[in-house]
Write a structure and sequence with these properties.
With 338 residues, this protein is of the alpha/beta class. 42% of the residues lie in helices and 18% in strands. The chain binds 5'-O-[(R)-(carboxyoxy)(hydroxy)phosphoryl]adenosine (KG4) and zinc ion. Its main location: cytoplasm.
């Protein structure tokens, strides 16, 4: 068959998304982000699950309509099995199962983190696709990993966080500074206006390729408490410099580990994925590494950085080619390993 049509469904956290791919080409990618969580300062699992329930049907219908194809033309349904919030995953999983059953087409389970990595294989003008093997650093609100990718299906985690994810470091720092949730984008925006060397935060000492971010968060908290005791307006007066300094420290931590990974593996092809790969600091640092260290870097198109179903559909496409299908008894798995 020349053209394979895959419907992807993503519901692991607080974005309900559906996408249609024809082979590696994207026909539609609809994302409905849940605004409700901002007022709680974080994702509320019960509310997320309920919002997915009301969003999933219209989001899938819209994705099919935008793609201009009828559901009868679909060759398979790919859905996120995990990792993520159980109540959220269940909505996408149940929906995908019933649709696959109703249409009598294969069901394909997808690991969300593999989606962030294989998003680089969605065909886009001006975006090169990595060749194997390459290193992928997944950086999001829930994950921080370095993965050695040997093929579309063969992946090995060679380093990961031992406590907080890097996105959490951004969001928790933002909370300390009184910023809204999620704070990553605002810290990034302010960082561009501030002096990255204004304040010094200690980087964690973690051996090998593992990461740690909880000490940094505590360091920032104590620093802000100490300075605010001296000058009550410290944060207001120095917000951009504080943000720039935090960003400088976090990007430094990520780049240090990538350098170790490149040295250890001898692989100089480096890709990033996940919400934090939208960050201007890490994007710039990677671009520089092309010149200074001879790396080839792959930075995702902005719309594929945060959670989306196109990345689930592309994993589905490669699994379809291998006829790697799931039974209708497949279960959502909150703590799914790569
Ligand atoms: O991948 P994602 O959408 O959801 C998870 O799977 O977690 O990532 C969301 C995370 C949040 O922590 C958010 O603050 C962070 O990505 N983020 C950023 C930026 N844009 C989103 N962090 C730093 N700079 C950004 N520009
Ligand atoms: Zn994600």
């Amino acid at each position: 068959k020349e053209n394979i049509y895959i419907l992807g469904i993503e519901s692991s956290c607080d974005d309900t998304s559906a996408a249609v791919l024809c082979n590696q080409k994207i026909l539609s990618n609809v994302v409905s982000s849940q605004k409700i969580h901002a007022e709680y300062g974080g994702v509320v699992p019960e509310l997320a699950s309920r919002a997915h329930q009301s969003n999933i049907v219209p989001v899938v219908e819209q994705a099919l309509k935008k793609a201009g194809i009828a559901k009868e033309q679909l060759d398979a349904i790919a859905f996120t099995k995990g990792p993520g919030l159980m109540g959220s995953l269940l909505v996408g999983t149940s929906f995908a199962k019933s649709l696959a059953l109703g249409l009598n087409i294969p069901l394909i389970e997808v690991n969300h983190m593999r989606g962030h990595i294989l998003a680089h294989f969605i065909e886009e003008d001006d975006y090169a696709q990595p060749s194997f093997p390459f290193l992928a650093m997944t950086i999001s609100g829930g994950h921080t990993q370095i993965v050695k990718v040997s093929s579309h299906s063969n992946m090995e985690v060679i380093g990961e966080t031992i406590d907080d994810a890097v996105g959490e470091a951004y969001d928790k720092s933002g909370k300390i500074l009184g910023l809204g949730y999620p704070a990553g984008p605002e810290i990034d925006k302010r960082a561009k206006l501030g002096n990255p060397k204004a304040f010094h935060f200690t980087k964690p000492r973690v051996d090998g390729l593992n990461f740690s971010f909880s000490g940094l968060k505590t360091g920032i908290l104590y620093f802000i408490q100490r300075e605010t005791a001296k000058h009550p307006d410290f944060v207001i007066d120095n917000l951009n410099d504080i943000c720039a300094s935090i960003q400088h420290t976090i990007v430094g931590i990520l780049m240090d580990k990538l350098k170790v990974a490149v040295k250890q593996t001898g692989i100089k092809q480096v890709a990033i994925g996940g919400g934090v790969s939208a960050n201007s600091g890490i994007r710039e640092a990677l671009k520089n590494a092309e010149k200074t260290m001879g790396w080839t870097t792959y930075i995702p198109k902005f719309e594929y950085t945060t959670d989306n179903a196109a990345m689930i559909a592309i994993v589905g496409y490669y699994k379809y080619l291998e006829q790697d299908f799931s039974g209708l008894d497949v279960m959502a798995t909150a703590r799914l390993k790569i």
